[in-house]
Every structure is written in C-alpha cells, then in structure tokens.
Amino acid sequence: MTNSKLFKRYGELCATHPWEVIVAVLTLTTIFLTVDHHQPLISTKSKNCPGCFDEQVNAADVIVMTIIRCLAILYTYYQFRNLQKLGSKFVLGFAGLFTVFSSFVFTSTVMKFLHIELVDLKDALFFFLLLIDLSKAATLAQFALTASNQEEICQQIARGISLLGPSLTLDTIVETLVIGVGTLSGVPRLERVSYFACFSVIVNYVIFMTFYPSFLSLILELTRITNVYEQKHTIISRMLIEEKDKANPAVQRVKLIMSIGLLLVHILSRWSFSAGDITSDFIKKENCSETSSFYSFIMKQFVMSADHIVILILLVTLMIKFIFFESRDFFQEKVATVNAINNQVSSIPEEFTHLKQREKYESCCSSTYNFNEVNDVEEQDSCRNLEVCLQLFRSENEPAALTDKEIMLLVDTKHIPSYNLEKALNDVDRGVLVRRKILAKSIGFSKLQNLPYQNYDYNAVLGNCCENVVGYVPIPLGIAGPLKVDGELFHIPMATTEGCLVASTNRGCRAVDHCGIKSSIVADGMTRGPVVRFPSMTKASEMIRWLQNSNNFETLKTQFDSTSRFAKLSKISTRIAGRYVFIRFVAETGDAMGMNMLSKGTEQALHHLHDYFPDMDILSLSGNYCTDKKSSSVNWIEGRGKSVVCEAIVPAETVQSVLKCNTHALVDLNLSKNMIGSAIAGSIGGFNAHAANIVTAIFIATGQDPAQNISSSNCLTIMEPWGTDGKDLYISCTMPSIEIGTIGGGTVLPAQSACLEILGVKGPNLEQPGENAKKLARIICAAVLVGELSLMAALATGHLVKSHLKYNRSNSEKKKNSCD
C-alpha cells in the first residue's frame, strides 16, 4: 500500500510538471550522446580477414538468434493483436510513439556510449522487440484517455502509475538479471546482444516512468482529446482485474526470491573478473588483418543465411494471414451490411473504427440503423458455459469480465433478474444495453432501431424514475414567452407533441405583455386519505369525536411532523360510512410535491392512533379520499397541493390588435362554453377551455408526475368586461389543486432540471422552504390564463381550424390538401 502511494505521488508529479520532466529527459539524453570516451567500454569490432565472418557465425549463433528472432516477431504480433481489440487508434498511437521514442533514445545513447556499430544492432533489434511491453503503455494511455479535464488527467495518470509502477519495477529488476545471464553464455553474438538488452530494459523503464506520463499529460492538455471510450468504466474495470492478478503477492514473492538468486549467480560468476577482463572477453579475437574492402563489408551484411530465410518466411506468412484473411473475415460482413443500410458510415472518423465506437457515432449521425445486431453477431462465439460464468460473477464479483452474451445467459437462467441488471453489473449504461438485447430477441431488432438509448444519464433514473429501462423517448420542447407574472418575466418551457399549443400560448403571452398578470397562493397542503374500519359504527363515531378535540389533534401533529423536517400537518378531516372512517391528512411539504412525506407522516400518525383505538383496522394508507390522480369533487372544493388564483386586465386595443377579437365576443363565448357547456356536461373542475394542455406540457418539461394533471388541471376561467366603457377585458383563472414540486421525482433528471433552471425554481429554496414550489404553481396558473385567452380568441374569430390546418398537419397531409 505504501509503495502504491509513493508511485501515485510520483506519477502525479510527472503529470503535473510535464515540461520539466520532458526537458530533463532530453537533457540527460543529449549529455549521453555528447560524452566522449577515449576507451570504448565494449568493443564489437572484429578483425576482418578471410574466414573471420564465417567463423563468427557458428552453429550456436544461428540456433540461438533464430529462436530469438522468431519469438520477437511472434510476441510483437501477439501484442498488436491484443491492442487492436481495444479498438482505439489513440491508444495504439500513444503506445507506438512511446515505443519508437524510447527505442530511439536507447539506440542512440547506447551506440554512442558503448561505441557499438550499426552492423551489430541487426540482431539486437529483434531482442528489443522481444523485451518491449506495449500493454503497459496502452494501459497507462487508457487511464489518461478516460479523463474529462486536465485535473482528472493527472489523477488518472497517477492512478495508472500507482498500479503499474511496483510490478514494472520488480519486472525490470528480474528481466535485467535474467538477461544478464546471457552475458555468461559464451556465445559471442548472444553476449553482445544481452548487454544491449540489459540497457534496453533499464532505459525503457526510465522512459516509461518519466517521459511517457509527462508526454501523455502534455499532449492531452494541448489537444483536449479525452473521453474517447464509450464504455470507459468497463475497460478500466477489466484493466484493474488484470493488474490485480499481476500484483498477486505470491507471484511477487517468487520474483523477489528469483531476483536474489540471480543476483548471487552474477556475483559468484564475476567474482574473479575485473571490469577490464569482462571487456577483454568481448574484444579478444583472432589476430588477423583489419584491412577489408568496402564492397566486401557491404556484401557480408546482406548474406541470406538459413536463419534469415526462416525469419522472412514467418514474417510474410503472418502478414498475409493478418491482412488478407482475419481482418477481411471479421469486418467484411459488417461493413457490407452497414454500407447497404446507411451511406454515412463511410464518413466515420478514423478514431471510431472499432464497432462499439462506431455504434456511438452512428447514433449521432442517423436514427435509421442500430448496431445491436452487429454486436450480437460479434459476441455469439464468445459465450462460456454457465458454470464458468457463474463462478466469474459470484466469486470475483466482476461482471466486467463477462461478455453481454454471458450476462444474457445468466438472465435467461434466472441467476440475474432482468429488472436488476444495472445494479448487478454496476454499470447502468451496460445494463440498459443488455436489457435491450434481451428484448430484441423477443420482438426483433427492427422494432427498437428508432428507440434511442445512448448519451443519457441513467444514474439519475435508477431507483427514482423508472424500472426495466431500455431507452428514452424524446419529446419536443418549445418555449413560450416571456410572460410577465407579478412584475417578473418568465420563459415557459413546454414539452408537447401537439402543434399550435406553444404558438397559441406565446400569443397569449404577447397579449398580456403590457398589463402583466397578478397571482396569489391562497392555500397549500398535500393530502393523504387512509381508510380504517371499526367493529361498529359506535366505535367509528367515537374516533371521529376524538379527532375533533384540539389537544388530540396536536398529539397526532407531533407524531406526524416528527417524520420529516418539512412536512407540517395543518388539518385533519373525516368522513364516515357505516363502520368505515376515511381520514384526510393535509400538510405543507416545502418544495417537494410531498406524497412520500404524507405517506410517512400518515403511517406514523395511524400507528399512534391505533394505541388509543386498538380495535381499529388500518385497511389502506390510501382510501381514495386524498384524492390522487382521479377526478373528484373534494379536490375541486377543498383543494390539494397549491391553490392559486391569477388575474389580468387586457386593454381593448390589445384585444383587437393581438387577439383579433373584441371583449364582448370573448365574454359571451366564455359564458356559453366554459360555464353553461361544462355544467351541461356535469364537469368537475372543468370550467375552462384547455387548461390541461398547458399544465401537462409544463409538467412533462419540468419533471412532474404527468398523471397528476387530472386534479392539477382543475380550473375555473372567468371573463368580464372591464373599464368605464366595458371594452377592456378582465380574465381570471382559479386553480385549487396544482400538485407540483421542485425537488424529487423527475425533477432530478438533467433535461427536466434544466427547465426548472430556466424558470428560476430549480431545487429547494434554502432561505424560504416551499417558495420555489409556490412560484412554479403561480407560473403554471399564469401560463394557463394566457393559453385560455389565446384559444378563446381563436374560437371566437373562427381561426382555430385554419391555424391547425396550417401548423398542426404533417407535410404529407399538407401536400395532399394542396393537390386536392
């Protein structure tokens, strides 16, 4: 743990001071390159004479170097195949650039410092390929690329160094000691290359721990390229699993013991030799003339020996297999399908060539194709058996190690409930994606292709707003206004699919632009109405009389108010039906809509009431006397939630110029339609033109419960002639039961929260609890008023049908009508 913290602080230092670290590394490199040695430390020059070249390339050399070359090519091929699965050219680019730079620094420095000629590096290059570890460079790049800002970049790089640093340090020590054994082999070429490889391991470690993290931090800061991965949580989880395995204490102890043993081998093997002896072993050759023609030297470098031929055949075979077969088989079917359906795929940036990155980009470009089918094809062969999947899921508790296909297998076998996927996977986005795939198996992919699911904050939804989520349904959002309410201007967000609604409301806002609207909250109290039952009517009547006592009410109020900081019981009313009693609790709930508060408080009060009346049966916490989400006279008469009244006096010239009407026509229509017509229909709370239209549109936009528009749309619209000549228009709207809140429920969702922010009522009012909810209620009532004004004017002048034909018809219908 201490080592990890030390490496983390070191990584944070490199990431936060990139320029200083890079300059220091370059300076040290320059110093090494400019150092002048009078006596070379290791000389690899051989004396050229007839037969010397052939004698150097003996059978042992050929066998050893051929094995090294083959292993180097195979290992490099394996690393690049693994990196390709990550799917990002950014990772490959960073890792490759790191490798090239470290190779350059090492080669240049060692060639200068040890006076090694270029001819001696042809075999060392293969050894270098065998030693490099692209996976660690890619891993650190992944940590950096999952950040979203510069501070997070530094933190992610530091986190990566803390995970990779300890194991990399120990690996470097072990590799150096193991390769150092090669210097004792007695094979000249292997000894020279082993010295080269030892320096390679050390230099790569230094560059990785200094230059590379600083380089990542600097590049990402300059280019601002972050958040490349769609599934960054999953990728990081997989990397952490791998690093956890690498940091196994038992493996670390084995490496330490092996390091100590190898160190003893080196000490004992070199005890009798001085540094000069070691150097002389490398430069001791047969005495022969150093004269050799330039032509002879060149020809020796291009001699095709048997080991060269083997290497060439192996390399060409791998290239042909990788380029012409595997890549074609993997992508041919998918690319053909994509091109046939949507031509926009050809314009996808190079960074998104992996199918999962393509899927994200494609969803932004077009809504006509979904890559779920392609992903399903990709995973169909990657499903392990049920026992293995269960073991991975239960023992390691790391669902990131399982493919989507394997997760679906666990759902099908009832080991993971479908409704609990987000929690089981610890990844809400992946949970939604897997559930979509499960649904698609039943109903078909084509039915889901136009249902979006990406780029949405499902964390806010989980446990709050919806279950079994498979996507979201976008609803157009319009803005009406500005609307002047109590001297303050508001822009009204309205989410609706009904044409003309926003435009009509906006016209009403213009009609009251100069006069404005006055509003008032006349009552505030959410309700909950449980039903209880007694053995007899006598007992029921006794309980009602008990509640009418003010002291008893205060007793219940104390119990009720103890369940919340904001819920304050204000009233209790009762109705009796035989031996049944319906109790209506009324309480203020601050800025919340308050149903949960009322439920908790009511339950506590009922339990306390049961202590006084033990023969009382509590049948239901809600007995429909509330009344919630149902039309009822009790809400119309007594109110529920916020009871609001708004009024405005519209000048005659405005009625004429903006509404294209006159006061007399509006008053007459309001009487005949909203009063007499609603009475004939036996309406409850429906003495208005279309209050529910505006209420529902604002409810959806601001995250309210749309079902509560039933009571919330209760509205009485009154119109009267005003002024000395009666040409001005007085209009008022009385809405006794607006059930809204600015916290909780759908108000936590990002888009809905933004709409509340537009109105200036987001969240709780810390200074005056409840004021934000009351303000929203006043805005809704005022918006209903201007909506009533505009629609009634359209009806009075006969413009309603014309406007709907113009604005509320599809393009195809318009073209058809124009042809007719």
UniProtKB/TrEMBL annotation:
Instruction: Tell me where in or outside the cell this protein is found.
Output: Endoplasmic reticulum membrane
In terms of InterPro entries, this protein maps to: HMG_CoA_Rdtase, HMG_CoA_Rdtase_cat_sf, HMG_CoA_Rdtase_CS, HMG_CoA_Rdtase_eu_arc, HMG_CoA_Rdtase_N, HMG_CoA_Rdtase_NAD(P)-bd_sf, HMG_CoA_Rdtase_sub-bd_dom_sf, HMGCR/SNAP/NPC1-like_SSD
Q: Give the EC number.
A: 1.1.1.34
- Which positions, given as ranges, span the membrane? 21-39, 59-78, 90-114, 126-147, 168-187, 193-215, 302-324
* Gene Ontology cellular-component terms listed: endoplasmic reticulum membrane; peroxisomal membrane
Query: Which SUPFAM superfamilies does the record cross-reference, listed alphabetically?
Result: NAD-binding domain of HMG-CoA reductase, Substrate-binding domain of HMG-CoA reductase
Q: How does it sit in the membrane?
A: Multi-pass membrane protein
Provide the reaction this enzyme catalyses.
(R)-mevalonate + 2 NADP(+) + CoA = (3S)-3-hydroxy-3-methylglutaryl-CoA + 2 NADPH + 2 H(+)
Q: Does the keyword Transmembrane helix apply?
A: yes
Q: Its annotated pathway? A: Metabolic intermediate biosynthesis; (R)-mevalonate biosynthesis; (R)-mevalonate from acetyl-CoA: step 3/3
A single GO BP term for this record reads: isoprenoid biosynthetic process
Asked whether the keyword Oxidoreductase is assigned, the reply is yes
Query: Looking at its record, which EC class is this enzyme?
Result: oxidoreductase
A single GO molecular function term of this UniProt record: hydroxymethylglutaryl-CoA reductase (NADPH) activity
Domain SSD, residue spans: 61-218
> Which UniProt keywords are present, listed alphabetically?
Endoplasmic reticulum, Isoprene biosynthesis, Membrane, NADP, Oxidoreductase, Transmembrane, Transmembrane helix
Question: Which NCBIfam families would you find in this protein's record?
Answer: HMG_CoA_R_NADP
Q: Name the family the entry cites.
A: Belongs to the HMG-CoA reductase family.
Q: What is this protein called?
A: 3-hydroxy-3-methylglutaryl coenzyme A reductase
What organism does the UniProt record list as the source? Answer: Henosepilachna vigintioctopunctata
